[in-house]
Structures are given as structure tokens and as C-alpha cells.
Amino acid sequence: MPITAYVCRRRWSKVISAAIIALLLAVTSLVTASTATAAETSQTLSGTVTASDTGDPLAGVEVRVYRWVAEAWQELAGSAVTGPDGAYLIEDLALGGFNDVEFVPPTQDYVRTRVDFPFAAEENILDQVLERSATISGTVLAETADGAPSAIPGTRVSVEREGGTYFRAGAEVDENGDYTISGIPSGTYLVKFNDPRTITTHLASYWGGSFDADTAQLLTLSTGETRSDIDGTLILDSTIPAPVATPADPAGPPAGNVTATGGTATLAATGGTASLVVPAAALMMLGLLLVAARRRTARAEA
Question: How many domains does the chain have?
């Protein structure tokens, strides 16, 4: 019986091995077929990029195609740069379905734009008009303990669109408190001064003086508009105590040792007088009085 069992196990091992090999060959065939199909259905994307304000072609715009590889993850599938005529061509794409195409201008004179585009044919055409960007600038100063406002270099200024397509941009003020933010599309925005995680001594505030986004004044920008009056003031955080300075000694260190005698002594540091009490002697006298009282009480009871 043991010999028969061993022979059966060998036969089943051969059967399982053959099945595994067949499965590997099948998977390899499918991968090869898929690769060949992708190669046969290679797609292209081409078009022209122009300016919204002049209609002229825009040269030097980088066009990027992103492919979805997961629900919240994309990878770059291909890119090209527009020529003097604003034209571009991206080859060897194998996408299918909706994917993102981003247009990145060489300067912030025009708005960086991303669109959702359906890749359906082998040759896909996408012409894009880039909007002339708006610009804001201003000065941000901070309150100080002595009341004279001053700049805090590195203070963050941000703009965030209210409603519509999400957009957010920012900049940091220089040593004079000045800043500039460009590349902004038309729309309505919240302008926020300071990130309290960076500048912890002051509160975050919004353009118009509010500390609450729900009541803050909104800034509406049109295409290509420039605003240079978007100023702000950082308010000291009242919950942070001001540092306590140690007063300087006007007379310097004492001229000699100060001896406590139980009377009055002149303090060389200030020139004033003060009564010096010796707590140890007082405690000793109190202890002697308590002991004497206890002895009298004991004698009376006896």
C-alpha cells in the first residue's frame, strides 16, 4: 500500500505541474495580445493653442496628457511643446476614454489650464484658448507691541476661488511686506493673509479685515485685470502673552555684603530702606512659648 500511495502522489504532482504551465502560457499569450492591440491602436493628440485676448498663437506652451491608473492617481502619458504657430503633436498614446490634458504656459501671463478630454479615435484633435490671467498685489504689515506696524518676511498670502472650478495660488511677502500673485483666472476669490502655522504670533485674517471666511469680503477679478490695492494687516494674537523684560539695576551690584540684623538696612542696589524680618528666629521663639504653655498645662492637670 505505501508504494501505491507514493505512485498516486507522483501522478497528481505531474497533473498539477502541467496545469500550472498551461496557465502561465495562457497568461503570457493574453499579455502579448494586449500589447499588440495597444500598439495597433496607438493614438495621437494634436491641436493649436491661442491667446484669449489677441487670438494669436502661443509658442512655448507645454501640453501634457495624464492617464488615470487608479481612482485618485494619474501618470504622465505624453507631452509636447507648441511651436511658433501654436501647434503641437503628441504621438504614441494608448489611452481610450476620458483623460486629462493640461496646458502650461511659459509665463504667468496666461492661465494654466486643465481639461477633461475623451480619447475616442486614433487621431484626436484638441484646440485650446488660454485666458489672459489676472494679477493682484499689495502690502501686508503686522501689528507690534509698541504699535508701529512692520513687515514680517515670509508672511503667506493666498487666493482661493469661491464656487466653480477649484483654484488656489499664493505668494510670500518680501522684506517690505510687498507681494504679487499672477496667473489667476477670472472669478470670485477669498484673499487670506498669514498662515498661523508659520507666523504663530499673529492671527490669520482676510481681505477687508474679517477673521472669518464666512463674513470675509470677496474679491471679483475679470480676465486680465490687475489690482494693486489688496493690502492687509496682521493682528497680534491676544492669547500669546508679551515677553516680560527684566528691569536693569540702576545702581549695579551691591557695594558689599548686606547683613540682616533684624532692624533696618540700607540696600545698596536702590538706595532705599526696608525692614528685614528673620523668620527662623520668630519660629524659634514661637516654639519655646508653645513648649512652656504645654508644661504649665501638664502641671495644672497633675
Answer: 3
User: By the 8 A CB rule, do 184 and 215 touch?
Assistant: no
pTM of the model: 0.62
End-to-end CA distance of the chain: 111
User: 11-21: string of b/e by CB count within 10 Å (b at 16+)?
Assistant: eeeeeeeeeee
- Of 175, 207, 234, which one is at a domain's C-terminal end? 234
Instruction: Tell me which residue range forms the domain holding 162.
Output: 134-234
- pLDDT at 266 exceeding the cut of 50: no
**Is 100 a residue whose pLDDT tops 60?**
yes
Q: How far is CA 138 from CA 14, 80, 106, 171, 191, in A?
A: 80, 36, 24, 11, 11
Residue by residue, DSSP assigns 171-231 as: EE--TTSEEEEEEEPSEEEEEEE--TTTSTTB--EETTS-SSTTTPPPEEE-TT-EE----
Out of 14-28, 110-124, 177-191, least confident range: 14-28
The SS3 of residue 32 is helix
